[in-house]
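Practice problem: predict the structure.
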Amino acid sequence: MNNTQTVEKLRQMRLTAMAELHQQHVTSNQFSGSTPDEYLALLTEHEWEDRFNKKVKRMLKNASLKQNATLADISYAENRNLDKNMFERLSTLDFIKKAENVIITGPSGVGKSYLGQALGHQTCISGEKVLYSNASRFFTKLKLTKVDGTYLKELKKLSTVKLLILDDFGLQAFDNHAREALMDVIDQRYGSLSTIICSQLPISTWYDIIGESTIADAILDRLINSSHRINLNGESLRKGMLNN
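Answer:
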């Protein structure tokens, strides 16, 4: 079998990255200095990295993150009240292995969404499914699935999401549909999957926002008792961006 046939068969087996690298080496005659084992390892590593990068890119797209938030760009300025040691422990994603939650509160513009999405970005890189959504839109979508009969199917899809990030939680009061959907989602995830909640409102107000004391008690018991809490302070980071 000649090199052209080898490249073609690699492509037919969908080993595209391996085929392209081998073609480059054939064209430039870059075989010298490598043993057969080393050359095979080089091709295999190239194929693996290509597939991994494509998988991460696909997972980031499916996660619907709104910002290109990364752990490296997080500010630990003293006025933010963000404990670096605590957040770096969260960034190991051990909380996901333990099916724990993260609650991030603070005034508008202090970077709550950024922190949540940075953890989401890191989770995608680790190969786990993530979904980010504005809380109001999330519950509106679930309400519509009840109308068209796909509610249980949507809940099943959510059960495959390792990390759910709900942003702007509590900005709108919960009606019966949203309250029941929140109960279903939190109950489904309790003890097996992680959720990040970002909210401008302190946790002490959530009971009244959710409404229906029995359901609110059940939701908050499952959500809060297994959570890491971050309460950010400081001026809006958006002001600084506007002034630059």
